[in-house]
Recover the amino acids of this structure.
């Protein structure tokens, strides 16, 4: 990377520039998200049912994208945590703090829809097998990080400690991904992201991919909006501190 | 319970969580913007926004 491109990158990473970029991007991203999810939902309910599962296969179109997002959100947080620890960049702190509630929500969707799919297909709402347990641990990790960020007064200190916790917890992501191969689980093995290509019929693959793109766009849109909110929250706190200092000086 | 019940509940709860998430982000954004405007109206401004446009920082 030469000096000019490095300067351009650091300009983008400036919180004020980020806010300007966010206000330009968010309306477009919201429209694309709404369109993708609308098309995805239409396909989810108009394509054929599975020969074995019947219409219950339609739960897959929300369960699988939510589960992918649960892992992708944590991966984004881990990349941001590296940004916090290596470059000490304030936008990286804002990024992983803003992503945690989104990750928790997508993980909750994956757990609930998985349970609602499991009951008619497996005959049980829940089993403590490797995949389900590791995703449940991911959910607890998100809740722990949200609680930790709320409990700490100093945002930059909170960011450094939570960055270390995020990176330690990242070990759970490959465990979730490969749990169905490493252990004997009730959960089925991967059928889309595989070395030898998807093992799923195109009839189900297209709605699934469109819903996955729609969910991903929803995540990035909400992430940028939540980052913008967090930057504003920090500015408000800084201005309140400034006001308190000015009041003290006058007194 | 029929399969339609499990499908309907899956989509219904997913929709509810997504709407709650969007609502939280939108309402939080509006509240922070309002708070910032109130602070600026009371004369408390960021040092960076008080200066001319050169060398913007957070």
């Amino acid at each position: 990377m030469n000096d000019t491109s490095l300067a351009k990158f650091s300009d983008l990473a400036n919180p004020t520039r980020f806010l300007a970029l966010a206000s330009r991007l968010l309306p477009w991203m919201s429209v694309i998200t709404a369109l993708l999810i609308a098309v995805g939902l239409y396909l989810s309910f108009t394509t054929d049912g599975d020969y074995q599962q019947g219409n219950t296969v339609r739960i897959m179109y929300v369960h699988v994208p939510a589960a992918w997002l649960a892992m992708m959100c944590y991966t984004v947080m881990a990349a941001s945590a590296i940004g916090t620890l290596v470059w000490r960049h304030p936008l990286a702190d804002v990024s992983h703090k803003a992503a945690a509630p989104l990750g928790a929500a997508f993980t909750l969707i994956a757990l609930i829809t998985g349970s609602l799919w499991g009951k008619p297909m497996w005959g049980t709402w829940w089993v403590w097998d490797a995949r389900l347990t590791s995703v449940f641990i991911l959910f607890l990790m998100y809740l722990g990080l949200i609680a930790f960020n709320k409990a700490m007064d100093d945002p930059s200190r909170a960011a450094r400690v939570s960055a270390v916790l995020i990176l330690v917890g990242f070990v759970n992501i490959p465990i979730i991904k490969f749990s169905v191969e490493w252990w004997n689980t009730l959960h089925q093995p991967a059928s889309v992201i595989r070395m030898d290509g998807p093992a799923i019929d195109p009839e189900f693959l297209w709605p699934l991919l469109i819903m996955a793109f729609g969910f991903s766009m929803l995540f990035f849109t909400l992430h940028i909006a939540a980052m913008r909110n967090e930057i504003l929250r920090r500015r408000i706190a800084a201005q309140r501190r400034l006001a308190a200092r000015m009041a003290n000086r006058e007194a | 319970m029929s399969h339609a019940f499990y499908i309907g509940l899956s989509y219904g709860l997913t929709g509810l969580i997504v709407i709650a998430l969007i609502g939280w982000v939108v309402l939080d954004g509006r509240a922070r913007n309002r708070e910032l405007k109130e602070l600026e109206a009371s004369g408390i401004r960021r040092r960076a926004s008080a200066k001319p446009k050169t060398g913007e920082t957070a």
The longest helix of chain A spans residues 202-250.
